[in-house]
Amino acid sequence: MAELTWQPFGLTADRREVELWTLRAGRYAAQVLTYGGVLRSFTVPASEGSRDIVLGCETLEQYETQDKYLGALVGRVANRIGGASFDLNGKTYPLAANNGPNCLHGGIRGFNQAVWEAGEENGALVLSHTSPDGEEGFPGTLKARVTYTLTADGVLTLDYRAESDADTLCNLTNHSYFNLLGHAHGSLEGQRIQVWADAITETDADSTPTGVLLPVDGTPFDLRRPVEFLQGLAMEHPQLALGNGYDHNFVLSRQPRSPMRLAARVTGGGLCLECYTTQPGLQLYTANYLDGTPGKGGAAYGPRSAFCLETQAWPDAIHHAAFPSVVLRAGESYHHTTAYRVTAV
Asked: Would you give the distance in Å from CA 345 to the centre of its chain?
């Protein structure tokens, strides 16, 4: 069971109070903000003593002014909704187009900008947030709850739950950027990625899924055996060119609710990070569009200086009947779990 403490982290531009919570278990520690549910740091045992492997900002103002979702919870619907609209129960719901023609990560003011309510339950941090009916165009009042737990053997778990009073869409994830050599290292050199997936969801020039599942065989997306990030990124493939690197949903399962599985493993700098999830998809993103974003301790985060493992339902699922559904029916429960386990190699 983790030890929890908290302290003030400042006021948002519209005068909302933000708290910084710290979970400690053994030699591991995680910092979580009530602003956006941000995972601000994840400090783990390393050869030099300890190492912070998550990119984050020094100040609340920096979090409010950056648009890279550093460490944040994203929703109601993570990833892209093509055409920034969807039909549900015979009605069309227009959304904000904040990513070309797409609605990305919940819209203009998604869950990453909410100030969540925080509390402690049995050594875990529980964040809760209510999104009112019609917010960012989505129907139904959605109540979301994310529980963070940390264990002394290096497992950080995020447990997601939500319910709505009307049929709506729901697909929650965390957008943490990792670098196993340290948050300020600046490069993915020397780090290897393995993903247990036989296909990706193909995207078009706007990063919108086409509906086609593209087998990974013979492509840079065949990560079923460990591949150096830089080796994979140096390969030529139309999908890599479209995303300016890895920014793709890997198909972990064609079933939306299945047991916790090992989705990905990254090694480097004497560490191993394993990602386990109940979700059917994993968005691997190699920070292609970081642009000198200011970070902790004066760091500046540039392109391909980190990787994201965003566990999720498949993007744009509402427009593809063969994709696992993201529709949350009134009175039903949304529940998914993702765990990140960090150990020495």
From this structure: 24
Is the pTM higher than 0.70? yes
Selecting among 129, 136, 310, 336, the annotated active-site residue is 310
Asked about 248 being catalytic, the answer comes back as no
Task: Say which of 129, 135, 163, 175 is annotated catalytic.
Answer: 175
- Per-residue model confidence as pLDDT tens digits over 27-66: 999 999 999 999 999 999 999 999 999 999 999 999 999 9
- Taking the C-alpha atoms of residue 197 and residue 167, their distance in angstroms, rounded to an integer, is 31
CA 337, CA 124: separation in Å to the nearest integer? 14
268: left (phi over 0), alpha (psi -120 to 50) or beta: left
Burial tier of 3 (Cβ tally within 10 Å: 0-12, 13-18, 19+): exposed
Considering only CA atoms, which of 95, 154, 162, 102 is closest in space to residue 128? 162
Question: Would you call 175 a catalytic residue per the annotation?
Answer: yes
Count of beta carbons in the 10 Å neighbourhood of residue 327:
14
The answer to whether 324 touches 254, Cβ cutoff 8 Å, is yes
What is the three-class DSSP state of 85? strand
How many other C-beta atoms lie within 10 A of the C-beta of residue 119? 11
Q: What is the C-alpha to C-alpha distance for residues 81 and 320, in angstroms, rounded to an integer? A: 11
Query: How far apart are the C-alpha atoms of 53 and 306, rounded to whole Å?
Result: 9
